[in-house]
């Protein structure tokens, strides 16, 4: 039951009428994946990681046109000539944007969907579903609509759905990008168990440290080619300098240590009023999810917000920027003035967790300036250069890789003239180099006196970008006043850091 790529090359067709193969895709890939092993595919953004997974699950060539050569096998099936449904029954898949893979309306239906479709007996499907629910700890979500799930909840449901059925192969595209540290620990433990049970695990990731100890092989890619294939232990022992040179994210679990924490105490801008929130309450139907006594996002500072999956971070972001209406008596001020939803929308810029919802233009160049008036060409070019999007100006935004889309939406947001900037998980699909450029762009916003809120589970990023670190606890658990200041955890006497 071989799973492998043998000298596989694929060039995406350009979206223009000339149908000339573009110079994007992958070249001469040969990789073997064996049962009971975990292969990590990593490398810079746009290097071809998702393309490898699309070759394995048959989306290439089924859905994506282009020039394909070589042979890809999934559990012994030739993916170029096997029906895509059959391939779907051979491997479970978690897409980079898990919401895009849901077929049904609610969690339970989604979990059962693939198994029922494969013609499994109802009792067998029920057994698979029960096992998946227990494994991923998602019983509280069982009767929920998929539409109303948070980003991390969606990712957990997608992971659970991918293991429902008789298949023993799992293809995971950035499966931890929206997971909280607790959910990542669960993820690592589940993968270890599946590996021991003989599953073939193939994971494309930037955030690699959770896969230390369970990775058997690592494939490092760059510009569509394999640059290194290393044993897991060799990969996780790469020296720090080399790791940075290769553009890889940290190999060890990051510890809390805000690089800009000192500026909080010395920069006068930080004390200027930016965005002030009092008595914020928000409910979905009868369920209250937000109850915040006080929150201040000072002008000139970057505040990082963490918290368990489903705690309400995205809801808070949507409320602040005026996309969700809080309950009466909530007071939100921008620069000392109480602002209603419409006013807040005008004064805010938001980068959503799911950036696909924010891409509207026909080309990358148009997308950057969309809604930002007449932007000078030089400014567009400088932004694209800084975010590694140069050369992609004429591409359709929907044909970009996950990380390229992410950076494009960030480019549009930072080009806008707002008072409040909110970035919701801006580092999915982002490699080390781009993490640093995004941090530096966000720091410059703060330097211009803006209020910036960064919602992220990514401590490596938070350490680089934030002045303060707040945590949002779930309202169901702690009630009114959900926000805790964790900044102090980043500085202990003697300069030592503490684990959060
Ligand atoms: N539909 C498409 N049409 C044209 N080019 C594409 C298409 N999809 C991806 N590409 C290009 O192919 C290359 C590899 O993309 P891929 O999505 O595999 O990268 P990746 O390593 O997964 O990136 P990321 O880490 O940013 O998610 C990129 O240059 C990307 O722009
Ligand atoms: N439209 C909706 N209808 C009903 N419930 C919703 C809706 N949107 C979100 N929720 C629920 O409200 C809670 C808060 O969701 P939110 O997306 O704000 O969480 P989050 O902290 O951003 O999570 P994550 O870290 O997973 O992205 C979650 O339990 C979620 O399931």
By helix and strand content, what is the structural category? alpha/beta
**CATH superfamily of the domain at 3-91 and 167-245, called what?**
P-loop containing nucleotide triphosphate hydrolases
Strand content: 15-25%
Low-confidence stretches: 264-270
Helix content: 25-40%
Mean pLDDT: 92
Total helices: the number is: 18
Task: Provide an overview of this structure.
This protein has 500 residues and is an alpha/beta fold. Among the domains are: 3-91 and 167-245, 3-Layer(aba) Sandwich (Rossmann fold), CATH 3.40.50.300; 261-347 and 418-495, Rossmann fold (3-Layer(aba) Sandwich), CATH 3.40.50. Helices cover 32% and strands 24% of the residues. It contains 18 helices and 20 strands. The strands form 4 sheets. A 6-stranded mixed β-sheet has the order 6-7-8-3-9-10, with helices on both faces. A hairpin with a 2-residue loop joins strand 4 and strand 5. The longest helix is centred in the middle third of the chain and has 16 residues, at 181-196. The two termini are 43 Å apart. 48% of the residues are buried. The model is unreliable at 264-270 (pLDDT under 50).
